[in-house]
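WARN retry 2 of 3 for item q-0093 after timeout on previous attempt; input resubmitted unchanged.
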Amino acid sequence: MKPIIKEIISKTNLSSQEAWWLLEHVTGKSKEELLFLHTLTPQQQIILQECILKLTVDHMPLAYLLGFVPFLDLTIDVAPPILIPRPETEEWVHNVIQALKPHEKEIKNILDIGTGSGCIALALAYGFPQAHVTALDINPEALRLAKSNAEKNNISNFTFLQSDLFSALINNQTFDLIVSNPPYINPDMAQTLSPQVKNWEDPQALFAPDQGLEIIEKILKNSALFLNPSTSLPCQLAIEIDQYHKDAALTLAESAGWDATAQKDCFGNWRTIWCKKT
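OK item q-0093 returned
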């Protein structure tokens, strides 16, 4: 199979791991099983070439072609146009879980704003099984996918609500931890995005007005209203940001009364702000 893997990589620029995933998808066999095979059947060869055309001509994201992405301990189904979970999101969610594990007994309620596929909410629900996670999204199609992913991963400590940011929450509802991967791309940057992103993923989940900062600012200004006043966690609000938003996001956080720090991702880019109420 190695010559076929090399062919896939040369034609698509996929990584070696991604090429193996594609071959597993085409054949319905695991990598371990494929290592004992030397050729594909004629039908599998046709399917492989069709997949390569979808990736290279239609610019279809591999995740949509495969129908899933791994996300920490979970398998998250994805479908266009719901936002595809990224490795950098997976990384910061892992870091939040690790940072808050020593405080696990204090975490009873978690809020995820703009849940999309449900990846963040479900990872937190899995990481903190004693907590209840409320996941919000304005898109009913995203919520259907998130609920399906909860069932697929046998996670039940959650509530999914259709909501424009905080609109569906009741006034006395509070949370120990609030997280969000909101729309944050500057609309002026749309033409710089790859066709895999701009032609396939939901613009409503990608772009925000005010150079991408409008939704971040709303979350920073309103989250304190829904924060448990007795929470003492080292991170009470975590928001994913554009790599160019670090200074602006920290200024907005300070103006909203948060003590905030910026965190870099595995690629060396500013990726999140972690906030604690001052």
